[in-house]
Give the backbone structure.
Amino acid sequence: MSTARIALETEEHQALRAAVAALGKRYGRDYMTTVIREGKHTDELWAEAAKLGYLGVNLPEEYGGGGGGMAELSIVLEELGAAGSPLLMMIVSPAICGTVIARFGTEEQKRTWLPGLADGSLTMAFGITEPDAGSNSHRITTTARRDGDDWVLTGRKVFVSGVDIADATLIVGRTEDARSGKLKPCLFIVPREAPGFGRNQIDMELHAPEKQFELVLDDVRLPADALVGDEDAGLLQLFAGLNPERIMTAAFGIGMGRFALSRAVEYARTRQVWKDPIGAHQAIAHPLATAHIDLELSRLMMQKAARLYDEGDDIGAGEAANMAKYAAGEACVKAVDQAVHTLGGNGLTREYGLASLITASRVARIAPVSREMILNYVSHQSLGLPKSY
């Protein structure tokens, strides 16, 4: 661990990082590739991480969590990723869904969901993206209408991770404002077995334990208490979940980049073609050094975003979380690319576990929001430039 990282983190954070790194090392990339090859899920790692209190480290203590925040949860995902075995559902279940319910849920919703999300016995998926809306959340067409005391949801979602293993999905729908008639976003908890709630697995080139699904909500009837929070504060509640999502995606990308870089550095230290190891040549060493710098810079912005969010500064956290996600996505792709290039033909073999990351690393660039939309956000929100849309 670098001295710079130690100086910026508390002793508790250092201890958490070391403990999670030890857990990740016991599983590693071989475990992950075996799980993917056999079509299974990361049940063993998920269960052990939950038992050790890592999955719910950000959730309130009174509901079984660790009482920490995004600073702690992002350390967990980063270190598991650096060991080659990231848990993608950490981004969705405790970070997005757990945070939204903890901040805005009713007492009954908190008692029902948070202890299970914290101990790993319950998981939640998150559905926001739609086939025809893309990055334009104003075009979301999944609607929720009142029918007596119930809600009835109709619509479609795509690229929803882990619906097959999730006990429920937090769905972003839109309701009609009684005063203006305009549609406004709201969040609903939809149980996996709810009548009319259908799912179809999307055939992905990306190989991961967590599968992607298209969801169809065909007049899904939900009780009144399926609504999370205040119907009139849906946008605030939505972004309370999206900022943690961006912070955790940054952690995902940084961890993956660190794993790839460590493999490349180990190889460059020992691989000898002429009289010296290839790592002695600047054409090999300098790009790896650049990758390391970019990953370290990304972590700094992620730590800033996590701290702002944990201190309750949603506006500041929004800017920092978007920047962290952008920086980490770029750093991850470059680190993986350089790692594969350093190993040459060996970088494409199954033995070294890097080739599959060529596709996986793009996730941090594309999801949950594209780098272009982040640049739009920074252009408009940070620099005050006009919009073109």
User: Anything to note?
Assistant: DSSP finds twelve helices and eight strands in the chain. The beta strands are 124-127, 143-147, 150-161, 168-176, 183-191, 197-201, 212-222, 227-228. The chain has a mean pLDDT of 93. The two ends are 45 Å apart (CA to CA).
